[in-house]
Amino acid sequence: MGIRAVGAYLPEKVLSNVDLEEILITRDDWIRENIGVETRRVAADDEWTSDLGARALRDVCDRAGITPADVDLVICGTYTPDNMAPPTAMLVIDKAGATGATGFDVNSGACPGSVFALDVGAKYVASGAYRRVAVVMADVSTKTLDWKDVGPAVIFGDGAACYLLEPCAPGTGIGPTLLRSDPTRYRAVWVAREERRARDGRTRQSAFGDNFAQLSGPAVREFAVGEVPGFIEELLAGNGLTPSDVDLFALHQANLYIVHGIVDALGVPQDRTVTNVQKYGNTSGASVPLVLRDALDNGRISPGDLVVLAAFGSGVSMGATLVRWCGEGDFGTPDPSSAEFAGAVGAA
Question: Is 111 a catalytic residue?
Answer without folding.
Answer: yes
